[in-house]
Write a structure and sequence with these properties.
This protein has 288 residues and is α+β, with helices and mostly antiparallel strands. The protein has an 8-stranded mixed beta barrel with strand order 1-2-3-4-6-7-8-17. α2 packs across α6.
Length: 288
Amino acid sequence: MAPTIEILRLAAFTSDPAGGNPGGVAIVEAMPDASEMQRLAAEVGYSETGYFMPQGPAGEGVRAVDVRFFSPAAEVDFCGHVTIAGAVALAERYGPGRFALSTRAGPVEVETMRRADGLVDATLTSVAPRVVALPDALLEVLLEALRMPPGALDQMLPTAIGYAGVWHPIVPLRDRATLAGLDYDYEALRTIMVRERWTTIQVVWRESAERWHARDPFAFGGVVEDPATGAAAAALGAYTRRFGLVQPPAELIVIQGEDMGRPSTIRVEVTPGDAGIRVSGTAVPIPT
């Protein structure tokens, strides 16, 4: 009989279990079959569940860990909020330090540190990010699925597609009220996302150069919306660097989940050059 897999439930990018993005974390001795991981992720029902298999030392003070991520509908190459949640869970088990994660998107290093209040902060460094153009014809189809007229866009900011482990179109809006009123066609958007292999759609409003508000439809994964999306926040950091919206090194705050009643705060460090973007936050257990 296969061993029982314990799924820890944590809220990431918050210190309040009623906020943030819930994620499932399983620390396993051997990686389960993909079908079993998919079944459990669907059963848990969170936007993603991650399976973390520690391998041993990967250098002085670094522990190697293999990771796979599953949404309720499909495996995804990388998930930021469960990376943060999983790193917090690993730090609680093995002690704070560095973890070298092997993901389907590539290597991701996470640093963990105990805070004065007893919580653990985790900082991931993304794989090398990319930002590419969003073709006009594809933008038109996307806006139709989002039920938004072109006039809803912020004409001062470009639309684009960002990558920091997985792909996310970045759609900047002209005002906060438009973001709050997001109401999209789930089936139409899911069709586009599956076809284009987009993990979430990052719809954003820029409050200031350093402070952004985001909402992330996640129809690709069988979830209506993500309350905090670490991978998309990293992609946004790369976007601000690519278009000269900040001068690296720079720090961004991404506010997400407010319109869902699960507020999240994601800290983003925009590094110089073409290096990986650093994303930070904590995670706390969700009472069962």
